[in-house]
Design a protein that fits this description.
The chain is of the alpha+beta class and 219 residues long. It has a single domain, classed as Gcn5-related N-acetyltransferase (GNAT) (Aminopeptidase). Helices cover 36% and strands 29% of the residues. It is built from six helices and eight strands; from the N terminus they run ββαααβββαβαββα. Strands 1-2-3-4-5-6-8-7 form an eight-stranded mixed sheet, sandwiched between helices. Strand 7 and strand 8 form a beta hairpin.
């Protein structure tokens, strides 16, 4: 899911940030930097697929050569100090199944985008990667994160809202020059203070349920 960048949200956030790690790991995933050899996996995984591209800024790639050109652009962007981009890889077999990155900045605040191979939808992978990515952005010093989704992209909206993002409102505009038809975009924001508060509540609730189950087991 690629976000369209706007400069209307939130306060300026231009303070120096910590350098993000080369890799992140979760229970099932490794988030790692992309490589030149990833083009075939990216093409066969998602850039060829019109269903994946439906609500994104780009159109499906006709062949792996198109993906190679875009991948080279992404790799070149790693030279920029504010580039934060990871491929999403399954730990169990090393399969590259998607990517997540900062697609731009709104007054210094990161705007997040992501996409996932259709084969792996509805299995919790994107939510798992998104949670780790959010944690990273706050850990390296950001205080606010933005993300946007086309109104009809209910799968992404569920993930966004599950992670506590606050709905800011809707706007009508074209996703990109490749897709000039206006669409309705839902904009969201998550502040670090809210994220930490919700995370604390979530941990407390999990502990409460574990204790309840333990007490029930003792009866």
């Amino acid at each position: 899911m690629n976000a369209r960048i706007n400069n209307e949200y939130g306060e300026n956030e231009m303070k120096k940030k910590s350098v993000p790690p080369v890799e992140l790991t979760t229970a099932r995933l490794k988030l790692r930097q992309l490589k030149a050899t990833d083009a075939p996996a990216i093409f066969s995984g998602w850039t060829y697929d019109p269903e994946v591209a439906r609500y994104l800024t780009w159109s499906p790639h006709k062949d792996v050569d198109a993906t190679e050109r875009v991948l080279q652009y992404w790799l070149n962007e790693y030279r920029k100090p504010d580039c934060i981009r990871y491929g999403i890889e399954l730990i169990e077999n090393g399969m590259l199944i998607g990517m997540i990155d900062v697609v731009g900045y709104s007054e210094g605040n990161p705007v997040v985008g992501y996409c996932l191979s259709r084969k792996y939808w509805n299995q919790g992978y994107m939510s798992e990667a998104f949670s780790s990515f959010i944690e990273l952005l706050f850990d390296i010093g950001h205080r606010t994160i933005f993300i946007e989704a086309v109104k009809e992209n209910t799968g992404s909206i569920r993930i966004i809202e599950k992670h506590g993002f606050v709905f800011l409102g809707c706007k009508e505009f074209a996703l990109s020059p490749e897709k000039p038809e206006p669409v309705t975009i839902r904009a969201y924001r998550l502040d670090k203070s809210r994220y930490r508060r919700l995370k604390k509540v979530s941990i407390t609730e999990r502990i409460r349920k574990l204790l309840k189950g333990y007490k029930h087991h003792l009866k």
